[in-house]
Amino acid sequence: MKARRAGTGAVAAALGAVLLLAGCGDDGGPSSGDKIEGAKPSDLEPSGDPAEKEPGAPEFDLPDDVQVEIAEDATGDEQKDAILRDHGYALMAQQEAYAATEATPNFTQYWAGEAAATFAADFAGYRKDGVTITGLDVFYFREVTSLKDGRAVVAYCEDQSKAYLKNAETGKVDKTPTTLNSYIDARATMEKSGDGWQVVDYQATRGSKECRDEA
Prior knowledge:
Layout: E1 18-20, E2 46-47, E3 66-70, H1 78-100, H2 105-110, H3 113-129, E4 131-148, E5 151-167, E6 173-174, E7 183-193, E8 196-206, H4 209-214
Parallel strand pairs: 1-2, 3-4
Antiparallel strand pairs: 1-3, 4-5, 5-6, 5-7, 7-8
Helix pairs in contact: 1-3
């Protein structure tokens, strides 16, 4: 595992298995500028076996033509692993909501505040434009970069090079070419909520050379 540069983070995930879920389109999301280095997404080993799911894990209703890969890499720190687990669920809920073009109960559980409002507006925009998501979205290099007083920051990369938008009515896929903008350097701020964690703020910067070079 490579170390992050000053002010950034390295790989850390805690889902117990790589999870196959929904993908998202090549446009999207609000934005941060931390540079991320770490293990390659090619190290992921897909697993769709429900028996491998963590006990009590939420169920997600996802179309057959959308996928997300989230890498396994537990830290060994119980609290950080719990944060990363719920961050993973938040990513799944986000993609489920993009596929549905509306906030789902899972999304409401794992997203709150400004982050939830921003994405809810994005879902509404997709619905208005008659588009949804298809393809593969990959999340990697996740790390808890700060943790204090029930508030944590998770830094991570996202690879949207195989994620596309499609017309919800006709099913026609807009297969945009892979560019530097397909690689996103993101940061989610999470707060403790009951026994779990919610994303309350989200920032991301498209065009991350570091995320692309390690993808």
